[in-house]
Amino acid sequence: MDELITVIINAYNAEKYIQKCLDSIVNQTYKNLEIIIVNDGSTDKTLEICQSYKDKRIRIINTENQGLSLSRNTGLDNSNGEYYYFVDADDFVELDVIEYLYKLIKKYDRRIAMCENLKIYDYNFKKVEVKEEITIKDDKEMIARIMYDIGMSGTTWNKLYHKSIFETLRFENRIVNDIVVTYKCYIDAGEVIFSNQCKYYYLKHPDSILGRSVRERQIDMYKASLERYYYIKNIYPDFIDNDIGMLLMIFHRYRVDYAKMGDFFESAKMKEKYNEIFSLKKVLNCRVSRRMKIKLILFRINPKIYSIGKKVYYNVIMNINKIGPR
After folding, report:
1. Helix (H) or strand (E) holding 252
2. For 6, phi and psi rounded to 5 degrees?
3. Which of helix, strand or coil describes residue 13?
4. pLDDT, tens only, 17-40
5. DSSP assignment of 137-162, as one string?
6. pLDDT tens column, 166-176
7. How many CA atoms lie within 13 Å of 176's alpha carbon, on the beta-carbon side?
8. Please, are residues 103 and 209 in contact by the beta-carbon 8 Å criterion?
9. Within 41-191, where are the H helices?
């Protein structure tokens, strides 16, 4: 018999989307599933929709609203499967995704398998088929993908995990979620099976905007990133992508949010941390674009110089566009 796989779905006020999600799970080609729906204090018809499914594999756990992290922990703590698969209630998957990832794990004898995903904004979309390519990526390459924001490698969903990965690991009760967990999963696993086949659909919609303020989220994002930086540094002290990832994190916070967040940036001494980590040799040899390397170098010299340079650059581009080709 195929091993039991636990699907964990966190649901909070997802009445508009959860039927699409559940239909894609209950109709999976892999049948030996335990489907745990954590109803996180929903006040709409989410629970009613979940209860309408008469599938014996479904188990609904009702809780007071505790947030995504603790809801996922509730799912983990009540699971019986040999493997775990996380799905957000407003997303959906291909009907063969679990069978597909399970076969990859068995074929290549690894503990995590993942595939590509597609960000969509409604259900009217077109998927582009590509020839299958399977690669084995080590933990450093997967961490680098997180640092450079490649393919949503930092998310918890869209991956099949052996239960041993979460034997002692749990989600933290904080604003950001995946950023503090996924890289630890990769380090524990050592290697990850990666498929270029798209089988997970991430629905971006107005309801998916999180309730916490931008300020709260950005503060927690920086703190979590700094914790991640030191955690990885302790294991891989010479890992350049870890350093570059932290530089990018600080750079983007300043670039986007300084007007609102300047007081926190100064109190957290983020620019001092940037200068401490910065190395011209590392930046010149890292995998970011030439334009980004220039930005990182200018920011190191002086954030104000960078800001002025950016304004001049965009003014030049705008004037060129107005003049047009001659």
Report:
1. helix 240-267
2. -95, 125
3. coil
4. 999 999 999 999 999 999 999 999
5. EEHHHHHHHHHTT-TTTT-SSSEEEE
6. 999 999 999 88
7. 22
8. no
9. 46-51, 67-77, 97-108, 139-147, 182-189
